[in-house]
């Protein structure tokens, strides 16, 4: 594992890990990409963190409905004019969150979502490994998935330490999918191979990465696997983690 440099982002309590400037191997065909240094959160945003954001931000009903679905699959609830995590799931990742809800949290916290290239480097390190922990699936034992979850769904963000990435990032595979900043473009990686790392500026879907508690096929958990959906959708399998420019 690489030497880990972590800072505490005071506004929301996120623990941010420095990913140093340099080259890494991206995509299924492992082409070289050089990224500047950046920070990315050690774990996904939790129910407790998102409840704090909602309590401070106090969105009107239109924004609330755009950002999050407060149903039985979401363990944040409104109490008077504030919000709280409940059900003993304070440290579980927030779900039922749209990409717009992730963006709003980042704007409040003074952070941003990672690009999908930043997300991928955080997940796989520099050596092009298939999973955060290496090249072997190991029957999925190192991450939260359909087989390891039992009758539960999400787990706490500090679980499965044996599945950490080379930078010490938790759950880059499994537990939840994570929204990225990028609009999805099927040919993005072909462009990145040429050295043009400019992300798509528009589209009909946003990228998410990582695989979830409800997925059973190992391809979903690969560091190079890309997926996308409408940014307005609020799934019980999708959350996010934050990033910050150095």
Account of the protein in words:
By secondary structure, the chain is α+β, with helices and mostly antiparallel strands. The protein contains five helices and twelve strands. The chain has helices spanning 47-57, 61-67, 99-109, 116-124, 188-193, and strands at residues 6-9, 14-19, 22-26, 31-35, 38-41, 76-79, 82-85, 177-183, 206-209, 227-229, 238-239, 243-245. The protein has a four-stranded antiparallel beta sheet with strand order 1-2-5-12, with helices on one face. Strands 10-9-8-11 form a four-stranded mixed beta sheet. It has a two-stranded antiparallel sheet with strand order 3-4. A hairpin with a 4-residue loop joins strand 1 (6-9) and strand 2.
Shape: globular
Number of helices: 5
The amount of beta strand, in percent, is 15-25%
Query: Please, what is the average pLDDT?
Result: 97
**What profile does the largest beta sheet have?**
4 strands, antiparallel
Poorly predicted sequence stretches spanning 5 or more consecutive residues: none
Rg from Cα: 17 Å
């Amino acid at each position: 594992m690489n030497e880990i440099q972590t800072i505490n982002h005071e506004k929301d309590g996120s623990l941010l890990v420095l990913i140093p400037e340099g080259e890494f191997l991206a995509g299924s065909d492992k082409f070289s990409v050089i990224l500047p240094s950046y920070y990315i959160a050690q774990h996904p945003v939790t129910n407790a963190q998102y409840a704090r954001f909602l309590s401070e931000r106090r969105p009107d009903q239109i924004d609330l409905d755009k950002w999050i679905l407060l149903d039985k699959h979401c363990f944040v609830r409104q109490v008077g004019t504030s919000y709280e995590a409940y059900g003993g799931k304070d440290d579980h990742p927030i779900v039922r969150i749209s990409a717009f809800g992730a963006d709003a949290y980042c704007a409040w916290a003074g952070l941003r979502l990672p690009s999908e290239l930043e997300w991928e480097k955080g997940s796989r390190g520099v050596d092009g490994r298939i999973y955060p922990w290496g090249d072997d699936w190991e029957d999925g034992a190192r991450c939260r998935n359909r087989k390891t979850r039992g009758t539960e769904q999400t787990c706490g963000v500090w679980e499965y330490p044996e599945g950490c990435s080379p930078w010490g990032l938790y759950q880059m595979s499994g537990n939840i999918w994570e929204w990225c900043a990028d609009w999805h473009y099927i040919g993005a990686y072909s462009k990145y191979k040429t050295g043009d790392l400019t992300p798509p500026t528009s589209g009909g879907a946003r990228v998410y990465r990582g695989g979830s508690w409800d997925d059973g096929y190992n391809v979903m958990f690969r560091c190079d696997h890309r997926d996308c959906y409408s940014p307005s959708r609020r799934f019980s399998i999708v959350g996010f983690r934050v990033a910050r420019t150095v």
